[in-house]
Structure formats: C-alpha cells, structure tokens
Amino acid sequence: MPTNGAIVQIRNLSKIYAQGEIQVTALDNVSLDIGACEFLTLMGPSGSGKSTLLHIIAGIDRPTSGECRVQNIDVTRLNESRLADWRNQNVGFVFQTFNLIPVLTAFENVELPLLLTQLSRKERRQQVETALDLVGLADRARHLPRQLSGGQEQRVAIARALVTDPTLVVADEPTGNLDSHSAQEVLGVLKSLSSDAGKTVIMVTHDPKAAAFGTRTIHLEKGELIKD
Amino acid sequence: MSIGSFILKNALRNRRRALLSILSVSVSLFLLVSLLVTLRELTLPPEDMGAALRVAVRSKLSIANLLPARQLNRIQSIPGVSAVTPFTWFGGKYKNEENMTFAQFAMDAKKLRAVFGEAKMSEPEYKAFESTRDACIIGRVTADKYQFKRGDRLSLESSIYPVTLDFTIAGIYEGTVDDRNMLFHQEYLDEASGNPGWVGMWWLRVASPDDMPRVITAINTAFANTSAEVRAESERAFQLGFLSMLGNVRVLIGSISAVVVFTLVLVSASTMSMAIRERFRELAILKALGFRRRELFVFILAESVGLCLAGLVVGAGGAWLLFTHGYGAGLALLSGAGVALGVALWNLFQKRFSQAAMNLPVSGLLASLGIWACRHPNISKMTNGFFITFEVTPKILGLAALVATGLGIVASIAPAIAAARMSVVSGLKTLD
Ligand SMILES: Nc1ncnc2c1ncn2[C@@H]1O[C@H](COP(=O)(O)OP(=O)(O)OP(=O)(O)O)[C@@H](O)[C@H]1O
Ligand SMILES: [Mg+2]
Q1: Domain of A170: which CATH number?
Q2: What is the domain range of residue A213?
Q3: Contact B288 A89 (CB under 8 A)
Q4: Which residues of A touch B291 (CB under 8 A)?
Q5: pLDDT score of B384
Q6: Is the CB of residue A47 below 6 angstroms from any atom belonging to ligand 1?
Q7: Number of CB pairs < 8 Å for A and B?
Q8: Above pLDDT 70, what percent of chain B?
C-alpha cells in the first residue's frame, strides 16, 4: 500500500447516521491511501457504505469523525463555499443515472463546470472539444441528452467530469444502467483516464467484471474495510 | 453558452408552463394597470387655469336641493367675484332612450366664456348661442355620438320639470375635461316652467387664485342662517366630494388591486416552487460541479424575475397599447391570433389533436379581442364615452414594474432557500 506520494489519505473515517434511538454506522473507522494514477474500485454488498465513502472523498458529504486529505488538503474541514471551489477544480463526477441537464446539448453539458472558471469562451470551447474527443463523441456535440443512447450519455458525463482537468474522478456505479457493450466502452474510457491522462479514478461497482478494469479493488462490508 | 442563456433555457424548459405563468402575471398586471388608471382618471384634479379660478356653490343640504335665483345679486356683489352663472340640471331624455347618456344644464349663455372659457367654439357659434332664446351647445363627444350638426333641432323631455323643450343647436364646443354636456339658456327653462325662481347651483369665477379662499368664506357666511344655506368650494373639492358620493372609490379600487397583487404572489410563488422542486436533482448536480448557493440563488432569482418581467411587458405594455394606441393593440392581437392559428394548424397536421384543441380557443379569443380593439380604437369608444382620456402614465408603468420585480423576488425566496438547504447527497437521491 503506497503511503508516500498518496493523493488521497483517509484516516479513521466514520459516518454515523442517528435516527432517533437507532444509529446506523455507514462507515466505521476507515483508513485508506490512494495513489496518483490509480484506478481504484470499491466493492461490497448493498448498504456497505461504498457511496458514503465516495461522497466524502469527493467533498459532497461530511464524516462524523476522522479526516480525508486530498493532496494534503483536509476536505472535511473546508467551509461550504471553499469546498464548492475545491470540487470544481479537483473532482469530476460520474453517476449511475448520467445526470445530464436535459435542456442542454452535450457540448453545453460539458461546458457547465467551466462557467465557474475564468476561461474565455474560446478556451472553454477548446477544452470542451478536447474532452468530447477523448470520449469519442466529438460528432454528437449538438445533440440533446434524449437524442443520445445511454452509453453515449454516460460518456458525455465523463467528458463533463474531466473537462476541468481534475485530480480525482469519482464514479458511482457508472455502468449500472448500461448494457454490457456500452459498459465496456465507458470502462475503457475510465481506465484510460488513469493510465493515459494521469487521473486518480475511484469507482464503485457491483460487477466483478467492471472491477477487473481497475488497478486495485477494495471491499467494504458494514462500513468496514476488508483487507485483501 | 453563457450563464444568461443557461438561465433562459431553464426558464423555457417547460414552454407551456412558462407561457401560462407569463400569461397569468400579464393578465393580473393588465388588470392592475387598468385599475390604477381608472383611479387616476376619477380623481384627476382639473388642470386648466379656468378650473383653478372656479368656485361651485351648491345647497348645503345636498347637491339635489335647488337654490333661490335671488341669491345671484348677493353673490355678484362679493368683491373678487368676476362672473356668476346658474347651472341647473335638466335631466332630459333624448328621444326614446332608456338612460340619459349626456347631461344637460341650463345656464347664463352670456357668462359662458367668462366662467367656462376652456369650452372653445367659433365666434359665430358663440354669437348664435348668446342671441337665440332656444339655442343650445353640445360637447364634441356627444355631438359625434349622435352626429349632431349646427342647426339641427332636438327635443328633450325633462324628468324633473313638467316640460319638453325644443332646442336649436347653435354650436359644438370642445376643450373641456369632458366634452359631453349640453348647455342652454336658464331663461328658456324659467319661461317654459313658469318662472319658479330656482336654480340648481351656481358656478362662479374669481378674479385671481388668491381671492379664492376669501370668496368661498364670504359666500358661505352670506347665506348662513337663511332658508337656503349654501356650500361654496373650489372645483377640485367639488369634484372630489362628488366622487365620495359614489362610495369610497379609492378604497374600493385600492383593495381590489391589493387582492390582485396578493393572488398573483400566491400563484407565482407556487409555480416557481414547483418549477424548482422538480429540478432538485439537477440543482444537486450543479452543486456537486462547484456551483455555490449564491450562484444557484442568482439562477432562480433571474428565472423568476425574468418570467414576471415578461408578464409585465405583455400585461402593462398591452394595457398601454390598448388604451393609447387601440388600433395598434388590435393589430398586435390579431397577429397573435394568426400565430396561434398557425400553431394549431401545425399541431393538427402533426396529429397532436389535444394541443391543437388548446391552441384554437386561444386563437379565437385573441382574434375577437383584436377585432374589438380595432373597432374601439380609443378609450372613449371602449367605455361608450364614460372615460375621455385613459392615460397609462409613466408613474403607473413604474409601479407595475415595481410590482412585477417584487413579485419575481418574493416568488424566488422559498425555492432559493430550499435549494440552498438541500445537501448534494439528498438532492441526488430525489427522483426525477
Ligand atoms: N440519509 C441517511 N440516513 C440514514 N441512513 C443512511 C442515509 N444515507 C445512507 N444511510 C445508510 O448508510 C448505509 C450506507 O449507505 P450507502 O449508500 O453508502 O451504501 P452503498 O454501499 O452505496 O449501497 P448500494 O450498493 O445499495 O448503493 C446504509 O445502511 C444506509 O441505509
Ligand atoms: Mg451506493
């Protein structure tokens, strides 16, 4: 396990949901290091805390205790607005249900995170075109999400995730809604992100075949990390 | 894509709802503007100099009580009074009309120019009016309505005096606030009804505005403790008093306006809440991508205010067009009807029957409104002469704009707070 040069350092991370008397422990004292250029896959039964862990790493959820450093910044301690900026610059999201904005074209969906940057219109266009090219959808730029297949939609979502050139790309069951052919394409793109583009990719999946695309797989059960 | 076009695409994502909410805002603002203009017209103070110098003298008991004709000498002798004329309501019905559509007053023809100088006629018309016993003059609005000309004769049966009088029209005047009345000789009425020695009221003119308060006091005291006590007041006070007889119009119109605005707030707020609720998941995505509360608030606010301002342009702009350029408004409505008809036909062609069924009545409604507006190109025609001017002033437009903007802001508050409170994770879990 790489300790030096780790991009993500997770220490004693716990997440407890208190619902009246009942407490649900979603994450139980998880510690984990993730290196640069790794394609880490997270597996485990339903309710084991995979999504929760991914959300905390990506800075859209907060733990009950513990710390999560990404490039030496403890994201659990950033305030809302700093965290939003940090996400914009450092994290790309891919979700199970694509989550594109239906009224925007593929191009505009990919451009969305760039609206928060200082880039000029021309620079934005170049970056969007590069990103769409990378996922092989340059010719679909003017299409609306409903005019695309599921696999194409997910590739647009990946283009949106990488257009800001983030350090981390997180994907929560990105192939869960896809047929096996489309899934292969999407997984191929994610793999090349870590191997060619040098991104750290963290992917939650239920599918061992999908997990096989990763460089390392870790298992969660009842919120605890199972060493393999 | 710019932030602006992103907001626009969001606002128009559900075309029908956007259209309906713009329409509901515009109809309400149209109503509001119409109410405010009505209120302004009804309480408009007379602007001309003549009015500033005019005093009305009526019975202290009520406007309907007559005054003794002998008061004339006493009033004339008060310093500062430059001219006095009786002014007596005749209450005549023209031909077989059910209602009286224009008022007739008996007065002293020789004092017309001195007291009501703004009623303009040609010199021969003045002469003819003064010198002919049964002469009358008629305001331009009424003359146009009945196509009266100089020299025409008309006969009116009084509902107050037991007489029917025949008149010769000596002139058509215009230039007063309300060119509708018919004026004739008090002497003619007196003779015909057997010189009863009563008049309806007095109108008089003071030499200068500074004399006004003193003259009013002098007249009021002159007849105090007589059998016919009077109330003298400036023309403006007289008209406002007249209005309060109709009930407290200001309060009535004010409360209707308040209800309109209140309903509008409820409608817009719920529409906006719905529009944002169903987009919670997308807002969560935007948050994940790095958009902050502040930016989401701007998106929601801009969308809400934008829809309300579109409603403002259609509603208040439509009111302005209709009331001041009725013909243009008619043409605009007709072209709108044409567009709706086109859309309906297109939908029919595409076999979208339910949509076509919605477009057709809209087209019909717009067309009939358009034809009506073209037929009644000014407010006087629309209201059958009740309102002469119906000016949508910049102040009223400004108020409507203020209401629309406020509306947009208020409607966006609840959804903006809900969007700000939503965590990304919970937002992602909401179903589309
Ligand atoms: N808002 C919440 N309130 C209470 N408990 C929650 C909440 N969100 C998640 N949990 C609990 O936390 C645990 C972990 O949830 P999580 O979504 O991380 O599971 P997961 O591994 O992603 O499961 P799946 O494979 O089904 O997506 C579950 O037991 C879940 O019930
Ligand atoms: Mg999950």
Answers
A1: 3.40.50.300
A2: 37-62+88-227
A3: no
A4: 84, 116
A5: 62
A6: yes
A7: 67
A8: 92
CA of B234 to the centre of ligand 1 (A): 80
Q: How far apart are CA B127 and CA B218, in angstroms?
A: 34
Q: What is the DSSP string of A202-226?
A: EEE-S-HHHHTTSSEEEEEETTEEE
Residue A16: inside a domain:
no
Q: Provide the shortest C-alpha distance from residue A180 to chain B (in Å).
A: 25
User: Cα separation of B89 and B104, whole Å?
Assistant: 6
Query: What's the CA gap between B213 and B232, in Å, rounded?
Result: 10
Contact A85, B290 (CB under 8 A): yes
Q: What is the pLDDT of residues A70-112, one digit of tens each?
A: 999 999 999 999 999 999 999 999 998 989 999 999 999 999 9
| Residue B289, min C-alpha distance to chain A (Å) | 5
Report how many domains make up chain A: 1
A50 pocket-lining for ligand 1 (C-beta < 6 Å) = yes
Q: Contact A15/A64 with Cβ under 8 angstroms?
A: yes
B336 closest CA partner among B371, B305, B311, B312: B371
Pocket of ligand 1 contains residue A24 by CB under 6 Å? yes
A28, A51, A219, best to mutate for ligand 1 pocket (most atoms within 8 Å of CB): A51
The beta-carbon neighbor of B282 closest among A88, A101, A113 is A101
For residue B286, the chain A residues in CB contact (below 8 A) are 112
Assigned domain for A129 exists: yes
State the distance from the centre of ligand 1 to the C-alpha of B338, rounded, in angstroms. 56
How distant, in Å, are the alpha carbons of B112, B166, B291, B401 from that of B107?
8, 16, 77, 47
Residue B211 DSSP label:
G
Q: Give A-chain residues touching B423 at CB under 8 angstroms.
A: 60-61
Q: Would you say the pTM of this structure is higher than 0.90? A: no
Give the Å distance between the CA of B339 and the centre of ligand 2.
50
The token pair at B402 is 């203020």
Does the beta-carbon distance from A84 to B286 stay under 8 Å? no
pLDDT digit string, tens, across residues B16-40: 888 889 999 999 999 999 998 888 8
Q: What is the 3-state secondary structure (H, E, C) of chain A?
A: CCCCCEEEEEEEEEEEEEECCEEEEEEEEEEEEEECCCEEEEECCCCCCHHHHHHHHCCCCCCCEEEEEECCEEHHHCCHHHHHHHHHHHEEEECCCCCCCCCCCHHHHHHHHHHHCCCCHHHHHHHHHHHHHHCCCHHHCCCCHHHCCHHHHHHHHHHHHHCCCCCEEEEECCCCCCCHHHHHHHHHHHHHHHHCCCCEEEEECCCHHHHCCCCEEEEEECCEEECC
> Residue A142: exposed, middle, or buried by beta-carbon count in 10 A (0-12, 13-18, 19+)?
exposed
Is A153 a residue whose pLDDT tops 90? yes
A60: nearest CB among B294, B295, B425 = B425
Dihedral angle, C-alpha B121, B126, B129, B131, nearest 10 °:
-170
